[in-house]
# Entry
Amino acid sequence: MFQDENNDAVVVEKEYVDETLVCKDCGQEFVFTAGEQRFYDEKGFLNKPKACKACRDAKKNAGKAPREYFTAVCADCGGEAKITFQPSSDRPVYCSACFEKRKKAQD
Ligand SMILES: [Zn+2]
Ligand SMILES: [Zn+2]
# Structure
């Protein structure tokens, strides 16, 4: 009977092979790459990802509050200006085009 005398001492590094999984959210196939599998093992994650990266990212972002936009009238061209802050009456608001124009003019 053949017996490898170093049997116990040999630590076989696990071979990672890209694996194709199906996303439970969008139904698309995605690759659980060897690198990701190694990462999961290192972190001690027992479960394979159930969703593709796009869906996971979408979920991550969904947790964040959506950015709120206010609409104001551009003080320059009179067009619609989308701003990320509450417009106040004492400060003129510009649309992005006019804002860029003014910024350039200041240089
Ligand atoms: Zn997906
Ligand atoms: Zn404008």
Remarks:
- Residues 70-106 form one domain.
- The mean pLDDT is 86.
- The beta strands are 19-22, 29-32, 70-73, 80-83.
